[in-house]
Structure formats: structure tokens, C-alpha cells
Design a protein that fits this description.
Elements: E1 21-26, H1 33-38, E2 46-52, H2 65-73, H3 95-104, H4 112-119, E3 130-139, E4 144-154, E5 158-160, E6 169-170, E7 182-183, H5 188-191, H6 194-205, H7 208-211
Parallel strand pairs: 3-5, 4-6
Antiparallel strand pairs: 1-2, 1-4, 3-4, 6-7
Helix pairs in contact: 2-3
């Protein structure tokens, strides 16, 4: 069984404060461009990446950062459902993944190793992450808002997309049983927690994450 070894140097210990960060996911949906690509490789979720949203150190960029990041990613990207969504090399590694690190990690003073450890942190401490972004689109033929992207982390909540708050929210049909989860707008942040998403979605397809 493959097990990732988690670093103690996680997000809250980078500089002694809690920076605004997020772990970002795409749901397989026929109604969004990213969702259609994701659905080629998973019926449950795709990891879109990790984002630091403020500078955490004065670490400079090094030439070896790209090589080091790709060395970490390549053996495990399938186990994380971290597939490239780029037109060329869809489902592979490591152009999209490296770009994610360069723009959302290296630019904020984060080394490849520390970026990777935060990206792959599914431990109990990570379950304190809150829903910080939800992207949804109103689907008229079902009269529901379909949730297409989710981000968990620390910071203010953002709602994006062409949605209608007067209607309930649902995730796309997911998994082999095509399950659909339904949520009220008034309680969506309380109902979609990281712990629930991890156990009911992530670990269904990648059970090692809940066992490690």
C-alpha cells in the first residue's frame, strides 16, 4: 500500500501565523469545461491544486524548483487524482501541476517540498479547513444550482459562478451509483465540510487517504 509521509512543516508552521490558503477540487460535470475533462479520469473528483494567497517567507526562487517539484509529483499524481487539465497532455503530469506550484507556491516563498506536503495533507489537522470557495451554475432543467468546484482552507468565503441563491444546490451525479447530494443555501457551508468531503468523496476513490 502506498502511504505518503506527511511533514510537520505544514501551513500553520511556515511563519507562525495562519496564511490564507486553499486546497482546490473540481467535480466531474457535463456542464463545465473543467468538469468534462475531469470526468474522463474520475467519476468523483479531481484535485485542481493548492493555493497560497499571501507571502509566507522571503525564500527566493531557485532554478531547481521545477525539477524538484516534478520529482515529487510524478510518482503520485494519479493517487491524488491530480490530473492535468491542459489541452495537451490531459490526464498526465506535470505541466499544470508545476504551473500551480510556480504561481501559487513559489511566488509566495514556498519551497517545492513544503508546497507538496501541504497539498497532500489529508490528516486530521487538515479537517479544520473550512469551505472557502464554491463555484456553481444554475441548471434550468433540474431547477438546481450544480456545484462544480470546491475549495477548502482558511480565509473568507467566496461564491462564484452563474448561480441563483433562491434555489437549492446539488453536486453532479457522482460515482458508480450516480449519487446526488442536495444542500440548502442557508446551510451549505455547514453541510459541506472538509471531513465529510474527504470521507464521502475523496476516500471512496482513493481509500488509502483515509487509511494513512
Amino acid at each position: 500500500m502506498f502511504v505518503l509521509i506527511f511533514s510537520a512543516f505544514l501551513v500553520c508552521s511556515l511563519t507562525g501565523f495562519q496564511p490564507r490558503v486553499s486546497q482546490d477540487f473540481i467535480l466531474p460535470s457535463s456542464h463545465s469545461y473543467k468538469g468534462r475533462i475531469c470526468s474522463k479520469f474520475s467519476s468523483l473528483f479531481c484535485l485542481q491544486g493548492f493555493k497560497f494567497k499571501e507571502k509566507v517567507s522571503d525564500r527566493p526562487a531557485f532554478v531547481r524548483d521545477v525539477i524538484d517539484m516534478q520529482t515529487l509529483i510524478r510518482p503520485v499524481y494519479r493517487l491524488l487524482n491530480w490530473f492535468s487539465l491542459f489541452q495537451f497532455g490531459q490526464g498526465g503530469c506535470c505541466d499544470m501541476q508545476t504551473e500551480n506550484y510556480l504561481f501559487s507556491g513559489q511566488n509566495y516563498g514556498v519551497s517545492p517540498r513544503d508546497f507538496f506536503f501541504n497539498l497532500t495533507d489529508f490528516s486530521e489537522s487538515a479537517e479544520n479547513r473550512q469551505l472557502v470557495r464554491m463555484h456553481a451554475q444554475f441548471i434550468s432543467n433540474i431547477c438546481l444550482n450544480e456545484i462544480q468546484e470546491l475549495s477548502f482552507g482558511y480565509g473568507e468565503f467566496q461564491m462564484t459562478g452563474d448561480y441563483k441563491a433562491d434555489y437549492d444546490f446539488t453536486m453532479p451525479p457522482m460515482g458508480s451509483n450516480r449519487l446526488m447530494f442536495r444542500f440548502k443555501w442557508s446551510s451549505v457551508r455547514q453541510d459541506i465540510t472538509y471531513e465529510k468531503f474527504k470521507t464521502r468523496v475523496i476516500c471512496v476513490e482513493q481509500p488509502w487517504i483515509c487509511l494513512s
